[in-house]
């Protein structure tokens, strides 16, 4: 490779990024100044999973001082187009709803105002009317007969259905001694970076050009999608990124629709517009990983050797298919056999839409959804045959002498020695000790299990893999897509110092540190003399569609291309120096800040002087060398070919290897999962910076731990979003992180300039299933889905062995049905007024207005139909709601049924309550009530945990107030009390 | 506390990192917004605005506080410290900051200011913390990048080093 002997690896190099970040000097998007006159946006979002958008009343918002505009989807129809997916489907994937909303959190209007506070005030006053439609959230249900269809023009919710066949799977299944299937429902989760999205956009009408600053992370293929959505040619969308970005994990690809939205808003108001997303918006409306239903079947022999796999994958991309989806489903296409030599494969890939947040890039991108079934299946095969699961893994691994290895589905695995990685991990990770611990724990009656996972971690995506969603004929028509252009520019300034610019758009991965070291080593100068910039400006910097920070491409591709650019520049400088020293360029070495003769150290020039030559003394530059001032290199690996006519897909360039094992214990009483030890072995080729690799592994592991145990983006059956705060979407904290042992072996990649491979995503792929395998071992289970919450595990424990509950504990209740958010309650109170008097009170709007908590007024439309304006708060969310209540089953003065709905900017709800009035025998009345209600919208997303309690408080408050009225001399107003349960329900929601 | 009109802006005065400052705010303005957008002190970050993530943590009168759950007007007369106060001089790092750098205890750096402020505040009062103590303090913060282990290591290292230095001379004043 010609670079052996150069240093590159700096085990302890401290990061050049850190001093500013540790001192409050970071420059994240919300830290950058904006032009005078910049306006601020807040977004009104749908509380409904599926509804027709009937009207948007802007008047109240526009009357607020400081509000400049309220912009709806209808206003943007002429200015923007949809964000096209990789697949031609009749889905208008706009960034904002026009006449229908299809998920909770979908933008409905943008309020632009003088500052953010006023913009949010305005957003509260935008009055949107909806007519709700039935929603579908489950991908299998979405395919069912009679399921609500999200996009009628597309005919159904099924966007794509492709079948693939490699080798002869039919014969292999027919000949197999055994076959076994697993079905996995992989849940939704997300990367949840600590910094949310941000966009600052302006529009120049004279040039019809947009200038957008966004904390976007790539891939910059999306630049073309954004330009198209803004209806301008690519050179009229200048997209810039801020110098620092507060994490991404893939998720900041999803800022693209908002870049379009804010750009269009800036155009309409004729001023720059800034928008910074808040966390509630982020969880509901940024990007989610796909949820997927997979049935994976294996054909295998009595030794556990797998001969064929049959994949049936049903991918749920949410409400719209937006670029780069359905890439999650195809990113792993070359890796569907994992770390195993399995020659025959059958695949059916379907993509379906449901009333949930549209999906996009999330760390691991497709890997977790594939390895969960694959590695669960390997464990199941072992269980089925009574074999050691580790032995089944080992028997199926690709042999060490088979690399480079072409998988059945078309990937070319670059290098590896999986057997050695297994052996090293078992030895240095203390597997024998862990097995002893399991024996001891089990002997003591405890639930202890061990899980194993082997996984291949792909990195450096082929930009053409997504075209596998098209048929070979469609691909042939569209022309081949392939490659992964990476680029770097090295510039010498007039005093001979060095600047490196790359299009890698990091979010904390330390690219600047690594690149400074690499380029400094090539040029023989101290790293401190190289300055690296990583903020990108598409109008001025070199970039291509593959640019950005995803698919773990930095170490493998970007670091390599920077080396290439530096080397080209060095070779030019050598010829310039050679001409001056009268020495052949090949005889010069770069080191110690000088360019010197290899043989005669006295013959040398300072590096800075040589580097400045082309600026000051171009006459000294040999004619055939050309100016040595700036060198931009592009590099794309030849191995990344386009999918072929047989659908072989070289989906990625590099293939690292991971082998994980862990020991876990499940607490019988509480279901809590304790990770006794977790060992993760990585082969990511040449390690460029051990400290940063460790950081990637640890960070990825903890995200995976979250996905496995704590995190889930939960939707109710009606599409209500229930995980709207970080108190609902639970990220692991320092106290949840177990003992993690990280081990490495090193098989350099022959396909990358520095021999490095990606490493940042592997644990997101391997860890969830490794933990699940350990839990399955502990509880002796065939099936287990994520997340492994205590409630779920406790229920599984109860099912598995129904132990006598410890003293003082009741046996585990069955886990609540997922998605059941019905609020139920009952209560009673006694008042001194007679049932007749209470009845009259309940039907009196004035009385109701005085006893309904938060009521601003009750209108009586008829004797049995009331409307009211109420302000109700749940936890952090307080809002105004319109309530509509009807009375039925009237049985004066004994009882009535109240049916009502509430709706407001923060949510909506509906419910029924039955109120009964009975004489208490002393002239007073015993008022009894039961209620049942459900709520949706923001209040459900952020207040779900609090709803039951809040319902009790509001309803209790109503009855207390009613009792005060009814207890007095001429108190009245029980209707109000009747209303209260309904309102309370609603209010609760509010 | 006087009742403040929501219709007008109010001048709030406090000491920020040892310097008297005033800022004009509405009664509802959050301390995070007053610091970041009112005073340009953008080192304090906002990760959730609902009190969970800890990115906004600052010291108010020597106690750690979530600036996103604090109204700016409530800081009237207080002694505020933010991440910008930690470096002993421009271009230099304090003991805790340097330990973070050594241990790769940050990646994107977005959570870092809050964690530094919690640890700084804690270590001033508890110079001999155990690993468990520090894990609990860090457990009040969310970091999505590092996996926490290097943060705990940096905090332990800094605590040990601080015991041998006089970086917190005002300890006596707070004791
Ligand atoms: S921003 Fe204050 S705790 Fe998250
Ligand atoms: S360093 Fe990125 S969130 Fe902590």
Automatic annotation (TrEMBL), chain A:
Residues 23-134 form the Aldehyde oxidase/xanthine dehydrogenase a/b hammerhead domain. The keyword Oxidoreductase applies. Gene3D superfamilies: 3.30.530.20, Aldehyde oxidase/xanthine dehydrogenase, a/b hammerhead, Aldehyde oxidase/xanthine dehydrogenase, molybdopterin binding domain. It comes from the Bacteria. The keyword Oxidoreductase applies. Keywords: Molybdenum, Oxidoreductase. CDD domains: CoxG. SMART domains: Ald_Xan_dh_C. Residues 800-819 are annotated as: Disordered. This is Xanthine dehydrogenase family protein molybdopterin-binding subunit. It comes from Lichenibacterium minor.
Automatic annotation (TrEMBL), chain B:
Residues 10-86 form the 2Fe-2S ferredoxin-type domain. It comes from the Bacteria. Keywords: 2Fe-2S, Iron, Iron-sulfur, Metal-binding, Oxidoreductase. Gene3D superfamilies: 3.10.20.30, [2Fe-2S]-binding domain. The lineage of its organism: Bacteria, Pseudomonadati, Pseudomonadota, Alphaproteobacteria, Hyphomicrobiales. GO terms for molecular function: 2 iron, 2 sulfur cluster binding; metal ion binding; oxidoreductase activity. SUPFAM superfamilies: 2Fe-2S ferredoxin-like, CO dehydrogenase ISP C-domain like. This is (2Fe-2S)-binding protein. InterPro entries: 2Fe-2S-bd, 2Fe-2S-bd_dom_sf, 2Fe-2S_ferredoxin-like_sf, 2Fe-2S_ferredoxin-type, 2Fe2S_fd_BS, Beta-grasp_dom_sf, Diverse_Oxidoreductases. It comes from Lichenibacterium minor. Pfam families: Fer2, Fer2_2.
